[in-house]
């Protein structure tokens, strides 16, 4: 019997299931969600469709896990850099800009743009589990900026406005890098973000 979607933990996948996820992730990102069928994923993974369904339950569930895995890797990248900043007693500005600091590394594997934005274009239904993962990821990043901004001593309503501005700059860099093929996008938006936050910081 196929696995219940709610029972699949991406952190506890067998090596075979992990292989399926890796293949599906590459296909979803490179070709698009609707362009890739279960037959293709199974064939390129070297398994039968029955095995795929037994491991993941459905294509939608496999898609959800793909997005959750990307989200977890992104958050871990930020958390690791933030921990380094804390160890080095980083200043408030650098803490706020942590997602920008790791952006060049993230862009090396994101030449087709943001996987979440790409998937969002194909998943308009708000109740789709993949759509929910995407919205949660973007809201999380906005709140990350907001919380670090407040920690830096910037009060409301400036903190909320600034968090939205930083989110827009960050997302714009990914689009500019992939579509406009602008290799300096990450550096340019980091400079803009630094200027915005620096101007809003209370005088020391």
Automatic annotation (TrEMBL):
This protein's record includes keyword Transcription: yes
Keywords on record: DNA-binding, Transcription, Transcription regulation
One Pfam family cited in the UniProt record for this chain: TetR_N
Feature: DNA-binding region: 37-56
Organism classification: Bacteria, Bacillati, Actinomycetota, Actinomycetes, Kitasatosporales
Keyword hit for Transcription regulation: yes
InterPro entries documented for this protein: Homeodomain-like_sf, HTH_TetR, Tet_transcr_reg_TetR-rel_C_sf
Protein name: TetR family transcriptional regulator
Organism of this sequence: Streptomyces mimosae
């Amino acid at each position: 019997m196929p696995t219940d979607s709610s029972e699949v933990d991406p952190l506890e996948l067998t090596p075979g299931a992990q292989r399926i996820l890796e293949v599906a992730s590459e296909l979803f990102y490179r070709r698009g969600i609707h362009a890739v069928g279960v037959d293709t994923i199974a064939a390129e993974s070297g398994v039968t469709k029955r095995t795929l369904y037994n491991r993941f339950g459905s294509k939608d569930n496999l898609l959800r896990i793909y997005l959750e895995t990307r989200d977890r890797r992104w958050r871990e990248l930020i958390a690791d850099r933030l921990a380094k900043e804390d160890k080095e007693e980083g200043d408030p500005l650098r803490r706020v800009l942590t997602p920008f600091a790791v952006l060049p590394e993230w862009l090396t594997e994101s030449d087709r743009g943001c996987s979440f934005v790409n998937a969002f274009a194909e998943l308009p239904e708000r109740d789709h589990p993949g759509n929910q993962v995407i919205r949660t990821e973007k809201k999380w990043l906005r709140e990350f900026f907001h919380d670090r901004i407040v920690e830096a001593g910037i009060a409301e309503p400036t903190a909320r406005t600034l968090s939205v501005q930083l989110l827009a700059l960050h997302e714009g860099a990914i689009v500019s890098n992939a579509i406009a093929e602008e290799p300096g996008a990450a550096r340019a938006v980091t400079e803009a973000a630094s200027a915005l936050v620096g101007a809003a910081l209370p005088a020391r």
